[in-house]
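The data are set out underneath:

___
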Amino acid sequence: MMKPAEREERRARLKRAIETLAFVRGDEAPHVSRSGKFRESGWLFDIRNVILRSEALDDSAALFWETFGGKNVQIGSIESAGIALVSGLVAHAAHRGEPGASGFYIRKSRKKDGLLKMVEGDIDPRKKIVLVDDVINSGKSFMRQIEVLESLGRKPEAVWMLVRFRDTAYYEYFREKGIPIHSVFELDDFKDTLGTKNLAKKEPPPPPRQAFYPVWKFASEKPSYQHVVPKSDPALDEKRVYMGSDAGVFWALEQSDGSIAWSYKVGLHPKGKGIFSSPVLHEGIVYFGAYDGNVYALDAETGKKKWVSFEADWIGSSPALAPELGLLFIGLEYGLWRKRGGIAALDMKTGKTVWAYRDMPTYTHSSPLYIEKHWQVVIGSNDGAAYLFDANNGTLLWKFETRRARNVRRGIRILLNATCI
């Protein structure tokens, strides 16, 4: 146990370090907000500039172990600031008489090679987990870590950080889960020196998440971790769940218990790219495309083939249906020079091609949208253009060049008048 004088000395020294090394005003160093806005006002805390210095990290570790010493804890965090913090706290444990201290960190996204880990370091089932970070504002970073741990059957004993931005009453999520929040400082502690104060509730705190519990779990064989793209979304009817897989197997699962009702293996396809297409159900038939270049129509009850359309080299697009026209629309991909993409309209009953447009210069991964009101279908391609067709006969009505919209901020929608020619 530290003596009160030592505790206050370390805390005061760490506070000065944060004030002089971590606090940045917008007029001194313009920065970009999380929403992507360039800001020349306001302020932020760059705590990394503190915890990467030996004396400040030593003070942080001493204050951490003053709270959690002798409680048999393991320290966890999320990359990237948390990595330095976890390492420093674990290293300091030996000087504090905490034998066997260890840590881990959670990746923001799963590693795409090697061991494909989401969590680096072994989570010790014998130890209580304390999650740490440099600051807490909304708490979303900690929430994500808690959800990862819960998926592994663990729950943190507490969360700890250097600076808390809001009153503890704001963090209802943690209170409802019984997870206490420990912070060395809050913004009010810097009121006299930096002019900060605890943030008000400009927005309501994140609502408590409804407690969903897995009823069953199904893991398809041979998943591909290299292709981090939108893949096959499930389709549902009254009894079953239908979905594609990276291994090229289409699955029908019983909703009641997750057991396999039937499966269907598509043809040869690139490794790890089997079925990215999301299925569509209509009147007992399930439709989807696959990277063997085919479009499939299967009986939803039995999994037996109704028809197969051999239309392209690859298909990653998802089908769109126009039942009143009896047509299915889907994007196409080819391996030919200057003929890489297109769209086809297939007869829903037979799979025969009613019309096709195959002159798009790049792949067409995207999925078409059928506009029932005007009997038109629109699709985007990798050339950065949107194409609008007459759904009945495939006449190209217009082509809109987006110029790939490199400088358009995310979140802005472009609305096109589908009736213009």
Remarks:
- Confidence is low (pLDDT under 50) at residues 405-421.
